[in-house]
Design a protein that fits this description.
CATH architecture of one domain: 3-Layer(aba) Sandwich
Oligomer: single chain
Protein name: Phosphate ABC transporter ATP-binding protein
CATH class of one domain: Alpha Beta
Strand order of the largest sheet: 6-7-8-3-9-10
Organism: Amycolatopsis rhabdoformis
Number of helices: 10
Distance between the termini: 47 Å
Structural class: alpha/beta
Pfam family, one: ABC_tran
Helix content: 25-40%
CATH topology of one domain: Rossmann fold
Bound molecules: adenosine-5'-triphosphate
Keywords: ATP-binding, Nucleotide-binding, Translocase, Transport
GO molecular function: ATP binding
Strand content: 15-25%
């Protein structure tokens, strides 16, 4: 099989610099800065409503799709500001993929076509002769190949929830993103499927930069190298209280609020 996904050196870090966000008049994030290093997993943790999903959506320009939504600050992919006028929305989407809470394959489309679905949307050109290899490679990387290799023409909707989520990961990988954003990717899945996705995340982490929102503290510990703890104090916008190596955030956090949260005392 020809290797078609990006070589390691083509991947990149993603960095938020003083990012603030509003829905209408309401400020929900205040000057959040975070470096998410290349080829590793960063977990965003914190109680409900503190702005983790909003922050994640800002990282691939999805926030601006909400009519009342505005933002300030910079997001840098490698050295490039993805909000610069020279960047098109489709550039951001191609380089920075997203996997959502609920698996969202195209149910009537075949497994094969689901994997290639993003190519056209993002203007990624792949020769027809290379498509078979690309599909196989993405399914291997998403940990789904062995289960579907003999039924690539069957509909995506016929797969189990966990398989559908891995299909969505394969679809996201097909456009060769540098970064993969995951918004609670296991929250709709059973423990076995969750473990399978976690394994996939681990396998991918050496080649794609991953940022994952999770409410599951064990999961954050299992999959991430670094963690950022978000919090919105009452009536105030969300921000990062503390970030650093996952071991430190869980084992020796500096801030009492971080310790309380990771030990399940609130949230
Ligand atoms: N489309 C929207 N319109 C208006 N307000 C919104 C919208 N989306 C989110 N918000 C508000 O922005 C704040 C941050 O929400 P966000 O979903 O980013 O938090 P979160 O930390 O991801 O929460 P959860 O863990 O529950 O998913 C919340 O107060 C929420 O009510």
């Amino acid at each position: 099989m020809t290797m078609l996904l990006p070589a390691v050196e083509e991947t990149a870090s993603i960095e938020a610099r003083a990012v603030s966000a509003w829905f209408g008049e309401r400020k929900v994030l205040d000057r959040v800065s975070l470096m998410m290093p290349a080829r590793s997993v960063t977990a965003l943790i914190g109680p409900s409503g503190c702005g983790k999903s909003t922050f994640l959506r800002i990282l691939n320009r999805m926030h601006e799709l909400v009519p009342s939504a505005t933002l300030a600050g910079e997001v840098r992919l490698g050295g490039d500001d993805i909000y610069d006028s020279s960047w098109k929305l489709t550039d951001a989407r191609r380089h920075i993929g997203m996997v959502f809470q609920k698996p969202n394959p195209f149910p009537a489309m075949s497994i094969f076509d689901n994997v290639t679905a993003g190519l056209k949307l993002t203007g990624t050109k792949v020769r027809s002769s290379e498509k078979d290899d690309l599909v196989a490679e993405c399914l291997v990387k998403a940990g789904l190949w062995k289960e579907v290799r003999d039924r690539l023409r069957q509909p995506g909707g016929a797969l189990s929830g966990g398989q559908q989520q891995r299909l969505c990961i394969a679809r996201a990988l097909a456009v060769r993103p540098k970064v993969l954003l995951m918004d609670e990717p296991c929250s709709a899945l059973d423990p076995t499927s969750t473990r399978r996705i976690e394994q996939t995340i681990e396998d991918l982490s050496g080649e794609v930069t991953i940022v994952i929102v999770t409410h599951n503290m064990q999961q954050a510990q299992r999959v991430s190298a670094r963690c950022a703890f978000f919090l919105a104090e009452e009536g105030a916008p969300g921000g990062i209280v503390e970030e650093g190596p996952t071991e430190t955030i869980f084992g020796a956090p500096r801030d009492e609020r971080t310790a309380d949260y990771v030990h399940g005392r609130f949230g």
